[in-house]
Write a structure and sequence with these properties.
The strands form two sheets. This protein has a five-stranded mixed β-sheet with strand order 5-6-7-8-9, with no helix packed on it. A four-stranded antiparallel β-sheet has the order 1-2-3-4, with no helix packed on it. Helix content is about 0%, strand content about 45%. The protein has one domain. It is mainly β.
Length: about 130
């Protein structure tokens, strides 16, 4: 079942992270006001492909291929222990945790952001 979850900063409510799983792939988006300012692949819900899909624009949102995936998570649900923490220092940082484990980081302008779930930098996520 497709899902969309919103995590709003308490200190700066103009910032939010949306996590969207469309039953094929899951991405997180950093929003400022009403504009996406960062994004990252989180996991594949469908089987991980052996070849990249990003050359086929009709497949947007792209699955991350096996070459880049170090760990593929089980799809999130309403009980998944996901937490987003915020740092508003020199730059705005949204850290995404699953069970107290940092899995992704987004900043304003990060397209893509950083992930602890990839083996190397790619177009959908940079290695954290």
């Amino acid at each position: 079942m497709a899902s969309l979850t919103k995590y709003v900063s308490n200190d700066r409510p103009e910032f939010a992270v949306y996590i969207e799983d469309d039953d094929t792939v899951c991405y997180a988006y950093l929003w400022e006001e009403k504009k996406i300012v960062g994004d990252i692949w989180l996991y594949n819900s469908a089987p991980t492909p052996s070849e990249p899909e990003w050359h086929q624009k009709e497949n947007i949102l792209f699955l991350n291929p096996v070459e880049f995936v170090n760990e593929n998570l089980e799809p999130f649900n309403a009980w998944s222990p996901v937490e987003v923490t915020w740092d508003f220092g020199e730059e705005t940082v949204a850290n995404i945790f699953l069970s107290e484990r940092l899995i992704a980081k987004l900043t304003v302008g990060s397209r893509p952001g950083w992930s602890s779930l990839v083996t190397k930098d790619g177009p959908l996520a940079l290695k954290l």
